[in-house]
Amino acid sequence: MKKNNNKTRTTLREIAQKAGCSVNTVSLALRGSNRISQQMRSRISKIAQDLNYTPNYAAQNLRNQRSGIIGVYSAVIRDAVRTELINRLLQELHTAEYRPMLGIEQDINDIQGNSTWMETFRLLNVEALVVIGRIPMELPGWTHQIPVILLGCEPDETLPCDYLALDRAQAARIGVEHLIARNHREILVACELEGDFGHGCIETIRRSRCKLHKLPMEKELYDPQESRLLGYTLSRQSRGPTAAIFNDSGLAAGFMCGIMDRHGRVPEDMAVIGYDYFPWADMLAVPLTTVEQPIESMVTAAVELVRKRLAEPSAPPIHIVQPHNLVIRKST
Predict the structure, then answer these.
(1) Of 110, 105, 103, which Cα lies nearest the Cα of 89?
(2) CB contact set of 285 (below 8 Å; sequence gap of 6+)
(3) Which pairs with CB-CB distance under 8 Å and at least 24 residues apart come from 138-142?
(4) Strand pairing of 243-246 and 289-292?
(5) Do the beta carbons of residue 160 and residue 309 sit within 8 Å?
(6) In Å, how far are 8, 11, 156 from 15, measured between CA atoms?
(7) pLDDT at 64
(8) Dihedral, CA of residue 31, residue 301, residue 151 and residue 65, to nearest 10
(9) Per-residue CA distances from 284 to 132, 187, 207, 255, 256 (Å)
(10) Residue 319 pairs with which residues in a beta bridge?
(11) Which residues pair with 102 in a beta bridge?
């Protein structure tokens, strides 16, 4: 097919005429929408390329009086959960006819007036802002004029914005109840006991009249090598917990390695469960049982929150708490 060498810009209508479909179908296909078949998307993309089509975002924004940009704001990506969540969210927002922009900050809890990303979002006239973080932070004053959706925060009915929360105490209860159902009565809670996850573990263990074991010196673990040393040390003891729950699946994996370093057996000598989506769980020597964030459903719900809030800006805040998934593997 001969390329269009005219100076005038190729329009969606011209592409639609060549493809034998509607302008709306072309628009959705060029944005990668799953509502259009892969075959039709490929055909339209080829026609657009042959016609040297380039989208006129400025005209779209002026015509619609909207930017189409959704800001996504997160702390530095260091873990599998945040990586998977952000990857899927960006893809889903783009497929849903928005243009996501990701801003990464070293510390998102200190952004009041100090964040260059916040200024960038403001200048680009974002239509909504999705903030990924556990603890709600104070946002700049201009964000009161646009929808803010919190993703992954703790449940808090007093928050004046939409959120999709994770109840980490509930995740802890799921994990401990699974261990108790496996007849474990002495359980090591390998995390900070003052946090929501720790409280959930303690509450469930005491309610079930089981014995709580704490970390030596109640020192919190931060590195898999530390948890590996803990596993090695505990495997040398003749008495102690028969199961352990961690608030980080990476730490749980290190702990199992330490047990096996001493030729201990998982789960026969020590059952282990971790909290967090962990893509390598099935690849470990003993696949790790995990309580996981439902990332796929979280992303779908978050995009739907964006849609609803843009459609009804004055509606009351929508608060959703996502249930966790228990993925049982050989470690328990």
Answers:
(1) 103
(2) 256, 257, 260
(3) 138/111, 138/112, 139/111, 139/112, 140/111, 140/112, 140/113, 140/115
(4) unpaired
(5) no
(6) 14, 7, 49
(7) 57
(8) 40
(9) 29, 22, 32, 12, 9
(10) 163
(11) 72
Query: What is the strand order of the sheet 128-132 is part of?
Result: 99-105, 69-75, 128-132, 148-151, 162-166, 319-322
From CA 253, how far away is CA 259, in angstroms rounded?
10
Alpha-carbon distance 242 to 190, whole Å?
A: 13
Task: Report how far Cα 142 is from the mean position of its chain's Cα atoms.
Answer: 26
For the chain, 332 residues long, give each residue's pLDDT as a single digit of tens: 444 444 567 888 899 999 999 988 998 888 778 888 999 999 999 999 888 887 765 556 555 566 789 999 998 888 899 999 999 999 999 877 788 999 998 766 655 546 788 888 888 889 999 999 887 667 777 777 888 999 999 999 988 899 999 999 999 999 999 999 999 999 999 999 999 999 999 999 999 999 999 998 767 888 899 999 999 999 888 788 999 999 999 999 999 999 999 999 999 999 999 999 999 999 999 999 999 999 999 999 999 999 999 989 889 999 999 999 999 999 99
* Burial class of residue 102 in the structure, from the number of CB atoms within 10 Å of its CB (0-12 exposed, 13-18 middle, 19+ buried): middle
Domains of the chain: 12-55 (no CATH), 65-168+295-323 (3.40.50.2300), 169-292 (3.40.50.2300)
What Rg, from alpha-carbon coordinates, does the chain have? 25
Nearest CA-CA partner of 164 in 294, 68, 66, 273: 294
- Alpha-carbon 22 to chain mean position: 36
d(CA 212, CA 220): 16
